[in-house]
């Protein structure tokens, strides 16, 4: 039998909401799927992700793997430069699959990230690390004009060219961008870089299964074929889980639950939640609507945010990512003196304690008026992560249409950029510079 991730709804427990309110949204959810399939909804020019997994050919994956292998073999470090959708998917999958202490283990080519912030110390420290080392660059930008990655690329390209010479540097740079448009496309053509295309109809936050995510993930040594195969399973499966999640979260939102926290009990999933926050935040937060997506790492954050979640304002619900099997087995030993009083746990696996913390927390939260949804992931493998990615993407499209917004645009992201360019005197922004300076002087 094919094993899959599974979604269960415990929202009706503790009478936080009535199941009938969830069921009442089924017709809207079905209509939303129809809009996606027929391309009749808002944002229909960005539906390339919908049947993306099944359209990925083995030839294409072989090419990605060959590029990854060449980079791995010639570099100690590969820096993936990108931000938002051009960063978070790769980071999420790599963190979920990596040994937590990989960074301290010698020998393997390591993927590092840049261009996902404008921290001067961050880039300085990275450049310091890369000085005199063999490194390569994957520069990722759909628009090809985003400021954060453009700054990081200018700096690291210059450094690589100085270290290796222009010709060798060009062999170690791969650009992932639009087929025709943008500064990065022109630059890549001029410099002769290997390139991959981000399809026009796939928005940044839905692009992890394009080369944007696949190449860095492959460079890190993970199985992109299995990742895609997992996504295909979800794409070709039925929509039961998508309906459960999309209907329940909308019913909860209508009942006043304005915040959703994505909860994990597995530290490797921290960045998966960061990817999810972008997916749902950018897709639904518009027209003065939308659940605020937040996340917590338990049990760590039970010692910081636990109090608020248990007893704070009752506007919150949670979606728990529960991982079945751990890779390792660590058993708590018996201690004759038992000075720490922990012998009641002797002989138990650490994960058994974690699982009881998970169940105990969910029950406590339901009792405290925090409904929860449970997503069970059999294990942290490429295949299940592929399933999870596609599940969240599809549920996001359905949920956004139920909410009544266009889930595939992000007009609000431009506001800060306009101000930043005006403040930095970017050519073409003269009127905005004058207006913002006048505002600051008031
Ligand atoms: O989802 C999105 O569209 C954004 O988060 C983008 O991915 C992000 O702004 C980076 O854009 P680009 O890939 O054009 O550099």
What fraction, in percent, of the residue positions are helical? 40-55%
Apparent shape: globular
Q: What ligand species are in this complex?
A: 5-phosphoarabinonic acid
Largest sheet: 5 strands, mixed
Distance N terminus to C terminus? Answer: 68 Å
Structural class: alpha/beta
Strand order of the largest sheet: 1-10-9-7-8
For the secondary structure, the number of strands is: 10
Write the layout of secondary structure elements.
Blueprint: E1 6-9, H1 19-23, H2 26-38, H3 52-55, H4 58-74, E2 77-81, H5 88-97, E3 110-114, H6 120-130, E4 135-141, H7 147-164, H8 166-171, E5 173-177, H9 183-191, E6 194-197, H10 211-219, H11 224-236, H12 240-254, E7 259-264, H13 270-284, E8 292-297, H14 306-311, E9 316-325, H15 350-367, E10 372-379, H16 382-403, H17 414-423, H18 430-441
Parallel strand pairs: 2-3, 2-4, 4-5, 5-6, 7-8, 7-9, 9-10
Antiparallel strand pairs: 1-10
Helix pairs in contact: 2-16, 4-10, 5-10, 5-13, 11-16, 12-16, 13-16, 17-18
This protein binds 5-phosphoarabinonic acid.
5-phosphoarabinonic acid is lined by residues 83-86, 141-143, 146, 149, 203-205, 282, 410.
